[in-house]
Design goal:
312 residues; binds zinc ion; 9 helices; alpha+beta; six-stranded mixed beta sheet; CBS domain Like
Amino acid sequence: MGLRSWPRPLSTICASAMTTSNDFLHRFQLERAGARGALVRLDETWQRVHANDEHSTPLADLLGKTLAASALLMSPIKFAGRLSIHLRDSGPLRLLFADCTHDGELRGIVRWEGAQPKEPIQLAPSARLAITIENAVTDTRYQGLVPVEGADLAQAFEGYFERSEQLSTRIVLARNGDRCGGLMVQQIAGDGGAAIGDVDGWNRVCHLLATLMPTELLELPPQQILLRLFHEEGIRLQAAQPLAFGCTCSRERVEDMLRALGRGENDALLSEQGSIQVNCEFCNRRYVFDAHDIAAVFAVRPNDKPTIVTLH
Ligand SMILES: [Zn+2]
């Protein structure tokens, strides 16, 4: 399929795509080059995640970029659900996690063993990114594992698309004090797997993207970034999807967790502390259960089906 099959490339971007919020995701297509992509910026959302805990600069970089990446990786998914990124590392990085729902709610967390690093973090050679996609409609989940080669998160995410979906992908991620952001482009394949767009299109997109500076990605309006990079590529920009901090914790979920612990463990905690307090690490919400609440958690209700919980 050649260039002539495309509608005339657009050099202007429709006014309806303008956005005033600083937390957004724009999907876009580059018609001449035969590519699609997404641009994400997180301002208040990032500050909310960042404010949950103390982070040294290298840890904040890692968390902010992972948060932005979760929105980028969710962007091509058409069904209702959630995408999560979980880094598994055998070193002092105990936990790095971010997730994004189809309706644009994000959260994230990072945990480090001991004094926080002041220098850029070198991930262990054995570090793996687990990327999990949950389909809320079919109640199914898919998980892909990718190595973090060269300690570069963006390259690891590119590798994820190339391994799991055979999609050539380039990703740029950035963070400063108050913001994080990312830009992703992917080559579009037509029927039979052949690339859509002109012969040199993908090479051109990669070279143009490599000229993007982190300050441009974080500071310029999205329309300006895309025009600066791809003004000859026939940009089609979709309206912004708003993004926001959101946590899926709930009292019901905590009750499920307490049930899985078993009555004996709950009673032991009650006699030790008088009440059981559970703090959500993502949003700091606190759930408190006294003896009366715990009795209700374990009470058998008339309509309950028998539940078997296997403890490992
Ligand atoms: Zn929460």
